Structures are given as structure tokens and as C-alpha cells.
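Justification of resources, computational component.

The compute hours requested in this renewal are based largely on the per-chain cost of generating structure records like the one below. Each record pairs the submitted sequence with a full C-alpha cell output. That output is archived, and it is also reused by downstream analysis tasks.
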Amino acid sequence: MNVEKYHGTGNDFFVVDASEPVADRRRLAIEFCDGESGIAVGERAGADGVLFLALEERYASPRVVMTLVQPDGSTAPMCGNGARCAAAWAAERTDSDTVMVDTQAGTRRATIDEEDVTIEMGRASFAPDAVPLAGNEPLVEQSVEGLTVTAVDTGVPHAVAFVDDVSHTDLPSLAPPVRHADRFPRGTNVTLASSRGDGFDQRTYERGVEGETRSCGTGAVAVAAVARELGLTEHESIPIHPPGGRLDVRFTDRGATLAGPTEREFAGRVSIGTSPTVEADEAAGD
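The structure output for this chain reads:
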């Protein structure tokens, strides 16, 4: 089948046109994304998920229906960097600088320019039923499994903790107990942040990936939203620095937007056998 690979600040995804005859999307995502035996592009095997994309061109602005299947086979209702990659994929096929991205968390408007893809992320919510949380009260700067976190929904749940230095915090050890804590009946992503100039450094342990990713768009919005909620910043535009690069979160009357670069790393065909093998049509970065 034809497969492409995109990344947004290091958050990488295989992209499959939804018209491809895939009998079992869950199994395909598990096989493609495996960090040891999955599809290898460059020095990295696997990915942070598979985007199944269906392009609809008959609207005034092209629409792309996005389904993200994660490495554990689960489906995520929203992914900020995934949606930005989906918009870039659709823009390349329609020569449009505006794309509507349909996700399970709602329709998001994306704009594409030479530097960045910017997508509307909606409004962050601290409401217990939105996150969701066990109990009737918001979770703001409370200890969960030894980590002081604030819970917010940015399309998916995040438990955000501000620490002195994200680079010197043991996220792989701290995150799993919080990710599976009883307070989060559907689980949560776990995001660490620390101050950096007028913005914040970020690291995220992603639910569904079950590990740290080089970038997380919903996590970047979560950091910015929680920082404003706690009075750590009053800025409407906040730079966020995950390990894979820089994202910019801006708050408007309509909610938050997320901006950053995207890149297509690979386009080619994949043969499915005992292990996936690839034949590139185009060089990485084209």
C-alpha cells in the first residue's frame, strides 16, 4: 500500500489514505509503529501513530477526516501535531492554504504557510466531566501518585506538573503511576513543564504510545492553559519547547491555536509480510 510519513516537531506519524483497503487498522498500527520491528525510516523504526486520512474536496475549504490509531491499537480523539500533519497532507493535494480537519473532538480549522501549520485547538477545560476525572471537583495542583498535577482537557486529558527542570526529571518513572491513577478513569497523558524565558520547556508521556514522545501538541496547549490558570504567565502567545523543536500556543476569543513546522519524511509503498518493508518513491524531506 502507499504510505507516507510526516512529523511535527519530532512527533511522527505514518499516513495512509483512508481509501486504502485496510482490513484491520488496529493491527496495522501496532505493526507499523513498533519501535523495534516496525517500518524504519532513516534511523528510527516505528512512529507515534498512524493517521488514516479521507480527503473531501467539494467544500469551499477542503476537509480531511482524520482517524489516529496509536501504537497500542487505541484511537485518540485528538492530536494537535497529528492534525497539523493531516492539514499539510491535504494542502499538498489541494493547493489550499486553509483546510478543515475533522477529528473525534470536533472540526478544527488549519492554515498553512511557508513556515508553519497553525490549527485551532478549541477551548481547554478543567471541568471534571470534560477531562474526565473521578469526583466532582477540578484537580488543580494536587498530589497524584506523588506528583503535583493539574488536570485539563485539550481534546485529550493531560495531567500537567511544573518542575524546576524537565531535563533533570525522571519522566519514565514518574508518569506511569499517574497515567493509570484512579483519579483518571480513562487514563491520562502526563506532561512536565519548566520555565524557559517567556515560555516553557515541555516533556510528555503519551497515553496510547505508553512512552515519551519528542513533541505533543495537545500537551503544549495543556502547559500553556495550566500556566495561565495558575498565574505563571499572562501572555496570550506562549512559546512551548518540547524536545523536538518549538511550538507556539496563542489564546484567542475562540480558544487556543497551535502553530509549528511540519515535514514529510517519506513517501513510498509498503509490503506487509513477516515484517513491513518499504520502497521509497521520494526522498525524506521532499
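The first strand starts at residue 2 and ends at 8. The mean pLDDT is 94.
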